[in-house]
Structures are given as structure tokens and as C-alpha cells.
Amino acid sequence: MSFAEYIKGNSGRVAGIVVLVAAAVLAAVAMDLPFLEIFTVGFVERSLQAATPIALTAIGGLYAEKSGVFNIGVEGFMIFGAAIAATMMWIISGGSPGQSDVWLAILASVLVSLAFAIVFAVLLIRYEADQIVAGLALWFIGLGFGPFMAVLVWDSRNSPSLESINDLTIPVLADIPVLGPIFFDTSPLVMFTAVLAVAAWKFLNDTRYGYWIQAAGENPEALDTAGISVKRVRYAAVIFSGVMAGLGGAVLLAQAGSFTGTGETMVSGRGWIGIVAYLFGNYNPLGAAVAALVFGGLDMLQIQLQTVGINVPNRLVNLFPYAGVILVLTIWGTTRTPSAVGEPYESEE
Amino acid sequence: MTMALSGMVAGIAGAVFAIMIQGYYTDPSGIGTYGFDAIAVSLLAANNPIGIIPAGLLFGGLESAGSHIGIYTDVPVQLIDGVIGLVILFVAVPELFRMAAVRTGLGGER
User: Considering chain B, what is the average pLDDT of its residues?
Assistant: First the structure.
């Protein structure tokens, strides 16, 4: 599927986003808002940063669901990712983390997430766990053991301030006005995510393995007949989604620079938003990344509005993604859920 | 119809929580994860309304025991949330125990 085909196939959705943005802009102009003060370069940069963990999680969850397994547990994986990255950063550096420790912590967090994801995948696929309930359970475990780790290490649910990641400046390109600071003078994680979104899209639609993943979700019998193990494909996809969500949590921590374990922890629903993002993007990694950017922008818009003196209740803004996805699903109703999603597959042999 | 009914019952549950347990209205996020707990309760009860009673008591017990432990011992409260999560996780995998039973020869017909 080429990009043009995707736009054509989802024209209603794309038009919807364009109309929404246009309406917002018109409303802003009509109400005589200080437009340029709201939509600054810094705002776009912050939106991209806020979108990064959501996009990573969404891409992972999308792969799992394409292969026929709901991974509702991404929120739990994100909490684990963030908590492990924080504790690892503290332990590796012995209390005064630097830039290299941030990268090591992200790597360690990815490795531990990999171990968790393998266990989770075995429970889901080999032992045919109820995918929704097991995913929810993972969230509870994350909510419990994430802050618990923080309590063990720091005697408090919240960590002291750790190191956050520095911006990477690409010479020459960063001097381009507007685009330079947004794309070439930003966190390396933002660049990494953008590249990854394109790669994930290419992989899913243009390679053999991508077709296997789609077949495992759409028509597992056919894939089995073709001599490819459905379970193996699903293992790969679920483990990938767990690792991506763990990475998303670690990235979130690397941006925030400290771990918060009170309430719903620092992740606070970003995993759920990630799921919403890939539904919004109609199971397309690029669409999911754009949806993540919209949600990240909404999140940051509130701060932006506050700086110019408009107060919007926090809860109302947080509601937008969920209300949005319900609207999209009911009005356009074109989201194609893979047909074999949620059903364990038993090979005939 | 059934969806509307389930929404209605869930709404009643929210009202009961606000009136009976809290006695005042606070930020709705204070209701925590009760709704998600309830999904696990209904799974544990194997979709049998009578089974809801013991299953619900188990989760209610874990919840209130959690605050008790938090008050009287040094064990961090978060551990209880994690344990509840583990309980739910194992509730979700009956197949695991059936396979284990088959392997150890304790029954569990195939």
C-alpha cells in the first residue's frame, strides 16, 4: 500500500483531521486569540517530544493487533519501562547520572521489557490467556510494582531529579528557519521515532514478514497452510509490542528526567492513548504516529493556552482523544479490525 | 439492550461508591480501578451471577486488607496492588493450570 493509496482509502479520516485543525484555527482567529503566541516553534517541538512515547507504544501495539493478539498491557509495559529506566539510571551511575547513563538506562529498560514481554507472550499464546483480562492485569502489576521499585530504591514513590536527555543538534540543517529547530535540533529520540515509524510502515506493507504478520491476524488458516507457524509470528509481534511499550516508557522517563509514582504514575494513561492512536490511524504506523502527534499537541496546547491566560480544565483536554476516537469509529466506522483478533489459533497437527 | 443494562448497572455502582463509601463527591479519578477490577471479578465468577459474590468478596478483601497492611506494617502499599494484578493475571489463564494438572497427573482431562 503506497502512501497515496492510504490517503485515498482513509480520505474521510484525513479530511476530518484537516477540517478539525482548520476549525480550530478559524475559531482562534475569530476569537482574536494571540495566535502566534500559541503556535510557537517551541510548542511544535514540545508536541513532538510528548508524542514520542505515545507513537512508540502505538507502533508496537499495532503490530501485536495486526498479528491477531490484543496487547492491552502496553500501559503496564510503559510503567515498567519508566520505573526500570529510573532505577537503572540511579544504580548504574550510583546517584549522579550523566548523559551516558541515560542511554544505558534506556537499553537496560528495553532488555528487561524484553524478558517481561516473553513471559507475557507465552501466557497469551501458549496458555491462551484471556487477552483483555491479562492485559489489564499487567496494568495493575505495573501500577503496583512500578512505584514499589521506587519505594525500595528511594523510600518514596517519586524519584529525586535524575538526568534528562540532551538535544542533538545536527550542524547546518539546524540553521534552517522554523524547520531546523523542530527537526534537527531536538531530542535524538524524536528523530529515532520518526525514522522508526517510516521503517515500521515499510516493513508491514512491503516485506514478506510484514505480510506474515497481517496474515496471522486476518486469516491464520491460510498462513498455516502456507507452512508458516502462526504462533511464532504472533510471538514475534507480541514481544515486539512489549519491547516498544517498554522503550516508550523509558523514553518518557528520559524526557521527564525523574520518576513519578503517585496516582496513575507518570505514564498516566499514555499507553491507552497509544492504543487509541493506532485505532485512529487505522492500523497504519504512519497514521498512528500522526495521531500520536495530534494527541501530544493537545496535551501541550493546554500549557500553551495557559501562558496566554486562557484556562481550560485539565480533565476536558484529557478527554479529547477518547471522545475523538469514539466519534471517528461511529461516524466513519472504517477502522478495519483484523478479523482473527483475540482468538487463539490451534494448529491442526 | 444488554449494553444499556450493563451501563446502567455500572452507573449505579458509581453512585453507590460515592454515597456509601465516600459520602462526598471528589474528583472522579478517585474511583480508581474499580471498573477494571470488576471485569476480573466477572471472569473469576465464570459469568455466573452467584459466583460474583465470592469473587467480589475476594477482591474487596484484598483491597481493604491493603489499606490495613499499609497502616499496621512497614510493607509498602504498592505491593498489594501488584499482588492483586498477579491474582488477576492468573485468573486470566485457566489453561495454564489445566496443562499443569495434566502434566503432574492430577487430572484435568484433555
Answer: 74
